[in-house]
Amino acid sequence: MPELPEVETVKRTLSQLIINKTIDYVTVHLPRIIQRPDDVVQFCALLENQTFKKVERRGKFLRFILDDLILLSHLRMEGRYGLFQKGDQVEKHTHVTFHFKDDTELRYKDVRQFGTMHLFEPGEEFLKPPLHKLGLEPLEANFTFDVFKEKLKNRKTKIKPLLLNQEVVVGLGNIYVDEALFLAGIHPEHTVDQLKDSILKKLYDAIIITLQNAVDAGGSSIKSYVNGQGEMGMFQQQLKIYGRKSEPCYNCGTLVERIVVGGRGTHFCPNCQLVN
Ligand SMILES: [Zn+2]
């Protein structure tokens, strides 16, 4: 599943591909992708003649700014965008197509069909689901240690599920939570209210470093992972702990373990990430 760095990279790439393109019409082949408005015909009608002005990101949502509307798009498991020429062969699992007046097409493809799109009036998108309860943006200036600490205060849950909860910090998913906890030396099952301030500070720093490094890596590899047809997908990160079960820890050589925490496969080093 794309996490903050991947969505950020998709955002940057799309910014280069679709800004100032005007929609002629939209076709939707899988109505359930469209969550708002309820009526898909209305969704398509509202988007006619709208021009993409900017692409932003809020958490793991892409936020497309059009002339009079905001389009939110969540890629969920496997959603992808690609820019094509009119007449290019349409790949299987293409569910939504934005046909531009310049005869190019932005196509949304989603094999798993979990992705969503919502349309809002500008400003309204922050007041209603799915954005209204989203937590702190970890790469923005207002994500200070004090604010982070306040969000974690008196929480009796395990640290990993809390970090996955988008109401605290946005953008972290299964991969980068494991990476951040490894960097901070915290066991994924540690109870939040038992973490000392000094450890929380390590975690705060680790979240920023992990995500920023991934964003930087994504930013530098944009060209290599957009294929000839301009299709964007995930890129392979240099991961220090995630997916390395039974391989030696890069810090200490202890074999990396995999456990399940809150229903999610979790990788950690039993030597570097002690419970206490
Ligand atoms: Zn280790």
From TrEMBL:
Q: What is any Pfam family matched here?
A: H2TH
Q: Which GO-annotated molecular functions does the record name?
A: 8-oxo-7,8-dihydroguanine DNA N-glycosylase activity; class I DNA-(apurinic or apyrimidinic site) endonuclease activity; damaged DNA binding; double-stranded DNA binding; zinc ion binding
What catalytic activity does the UniProt entry give for this protein?
Hydrolysis of DNA containing ring-opened 7-methylguanine residues, releasing 2,6-diamino-4-hydroxy-5-(N-methyl)formamidopyrimidine; 2'-deoxyribonucleotide-(2'-deoxyribose 5'-phosphate)-2'-deoxyribonucleotide-DNA = a 3'-end 2'-deoxyribonucleotide-(2,3-dehydro-2,3-deoxyribose 5'-phosphate)-DNA + a 5'-end 5'-phospho-2'-deoxyribonucleoside-DNA + H(+)
Query: Does the UniProt entry include the keyword Transmembrane helix?
Result: no
Do the record's keywords include Hydrolase?
yes
Q: Which UniProt keywords apply?
A: DNA damage, DNA repair, DNA-binding, Glycosidase, Hydrolase, Lyase, Metal-binding, Multifunctional enzyme, Zinc, Zinc-finger
Q: Where is the FPG-type domain?
A: 240-274
The record describes how the cofactor is bound as: Binds 1 zinc ion per subunit.
Entry cofactors: Zn(2+)
Q: Which residues form a coiled coil?
A: none
**What are the recorded Gene Ontology BP terms?**
base-excision repair
Question: Taking every annotated instance into account, which residue ranges of this chain make up the domain Formamidopyrimidine-DNA glycosylase catalytic?
Answer: 2-115
Per UniProt, where does DNA bind? 93, 112, 155
Question: Which sites are catalytic?
Answer: 2-3, 60, 264
Report the EC number(s), separated by commas if there are several: 3.2.2.23, 4.2.99.18
Q: Which SMART domains match?
A: Fapy_DNA_glyco (SM00898), H2TH (SM01232)
Similarity-based family? Belongs to the FPG family.
Main function: Involved in base excision repair of DNA damaged by oxidation or by mutagenic agents. Acts as DNA glycosylase that recognizes and removes damaged bases. Has a preference for oxidized purines, such as 7,8-dihydro-8-oxoguanine (8-oxoG). Has AP (apurinic/apyrimidinic) lyase activity and introduces nicks in the DNA strand. Cleaves the DNA backbone by beta-delta elimination to generate a single-strand break at the site of the removed base with both 3'- and 5'-phosphates.
Assembly and oligomerization: Monomer.
Q: What is this protein called?
A: Formamidopyrimidine-DNA glycosylase
